């Protein structure tokens, strides 16, 4: 694992037991409704969730699907495993880095993630891996926090980004839509309900 990945992994291992509590307010006010919108778009039988974290998306999993979920934080996966047992969710949990997936090419009907790429050291490398494991005609669904399109706010986000990275290991200045467009995905579109800094992104292989 690269040094940047190891550093971020360590951050998430440290906060894993408190992660749900830390994000509880934003989860209730904003993120929960967006997660539901995201998972309503899932198609196909074999689904890959990247950056499963503590399992915040478990409540939205489709019933008639085979779901594999990965994360690069062992402690986050432990929280997800506890939640899986408590909620009686059927999902295969795997310790894995999105930048180097141990899956065969063309494996999944839908690849999905929520608020993941702010923590990926090499976003393009991660997206290329998602493209590789997605089946031809399959879809990529991402819910991501991105850099604001408002110049003053974007400048402020760029200014404080190094501090946020140092404290939390996440980047608040990512241009994830442009990164996806730079890959080989077709039909990249933004859900019309998306806001300035939270984007529901859809793409096809």
Automatic annotation (TrEMBL):
Gene3D superfamilies per the UniProt record, alphabetical: Vaccinia Virus protein VP39 (3.40.50.150)
GO function terms (MF aspect): S-adenosylmethionine-dependent methyltransferase activity
Lineage of source species: Bacteria, Pseudomonadati, Pseudomonadota, Gammaproteobacteria, Methylococcales
Spans traversing the lipid bilayer: none
Protein name, UniProt field: Phosphatidylethanolamine N-methyltransferase
Alphabetized Pfam families for the sequence: Methyltransf_11 (PF08241)
InterPro entries registered for this protein in UniProt: Methyltransf_11 (IPR013216), SAM-dependent_MTases_sf (IPR029063), Thiol_S-MT (IPR052356)
Ranges in coiled-coil conformation: none
Chain ranges of the Methyltransferase type domain: 48-141
